[in-house]
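Support request, please re-run this one:
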Amino acid sequence: MERTLTQYIRALRAAGAGVSTTEAIDAARTLDVVGYADRTVMKTALGAVLAKSVEEKALHSRLFDLYFHRDAVTEPPPRDEADQAASPTDSEDDEADGDSDSADAFMDLAEAQDAGRTAMALEKAAQAAGTDGIRFASQASYYTRRMLEQMGVKALEQRLIGKLGEHTPEADAEARRMMEARTALQTRARAVVDARFELFGRAATETFLNEMVSERQIGALSRTDMERMKHVVARMAKRLAVKHARRRKVRNRGQLDLRRTLRANAGHDGVPFDVVWRTKRKDRPKIVAVCDVSGSVAQYVRFLLLFLFMLREKVTDLETFAFSNHLEDVGPVLESREFNAAMDHIVMQVGSASTDYGVALEDLETQFGEVIDRRTTVLILGDGRSNHANPRLDLFQQIADRAKRVVWLCPEPEGSWGMGDSCLLQYRPFCTHLSHCATAGDIERAIDEMLLAYD
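Re-run finished. Output below.
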């Protein structure tokens, strides 16, 4: 029974539930009390121990029904010592007898009316075939075949070939019976494998696909990839929010503050029972995002803004601006509309003209300059191509001097910087950080580094 619980906890973890070792131990103790007999009580008890959030409770409910929806949850009995000691290749006669016995056992199992016995045999075959290791749906046929082999299908197929070669009515009838038996157990075995995939494979497949799409060039994403990316970005943002919330909770112990320590312990004759450390004041994150939404960059902006808005619980002070040849505050549009509709509106209204970074910087400084102060990170996403217009480096320097940091993310590779109408190398001396940003993973890493400056 311990293995049953261990595998269930493994399935929960594979699906994304954060089950700790302590919680796994508590679950084992809980089952010692409630037992396995009443599955409703068992489900409720495990849910109280293993599921900590609404999402995890829903996950537990789904996986529990899937994992324990079997005719038997007990582990198959171990093989006795006589079976283990016997060698399948003692002699040709023994091998022939073994094949015959395997074929007979396969037929008997396929035609048996005892559902519990069949379920137990399938469970034993699934364990022997290693079906818990399934990771992709394409592996289902492979594991189904391995299960059938564990139950003796090879011996059955050898007998089937012999019957088909006899060409008699009796042999043909027996051959049909064997094919029906094989089909029946194959269907049952495939159902077991499919259930194992839902438990152990689907989450692994999703994780693999998410990792692939997060490192794919944003400009090369297909429509299907775009739908997946919404979930990928949401998970990335949640991961960053949790990471940086935890970092801020850790107290930064620096040098001992002797004066405050003595004052705090004046009532203890100067004995330092209460030690006071000097702590550095931490700024709360404040981000001003300035995004080029011209045709060549708009797709990247969509994911950057989606990322930032997913982080609103962590970055409560967020200003968003978009520009092509003029700059607009797009925060109200993003707040009032569904995200995709808002982005479509922004790209259409702001991104339809020729790009002019100089005019955009002038609009930012003259109309919205007050939003930038000493704790502001100015985050710019754009290729720096200004159609040979005045880049207004003077304004960019003023903004950089006033801000805490200036981070520039460029969708173009570094080899293209400064080529043609690119002004990026002229802006570079005033940037705290300038990097190539082509994937969602790049955006995550850039925002992570940005937030580290506030921890």
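The longest helix spans residues 169-214. Strands lie at 286-292, 317-323, 327-329, 376-381, 405-410, 433-436.
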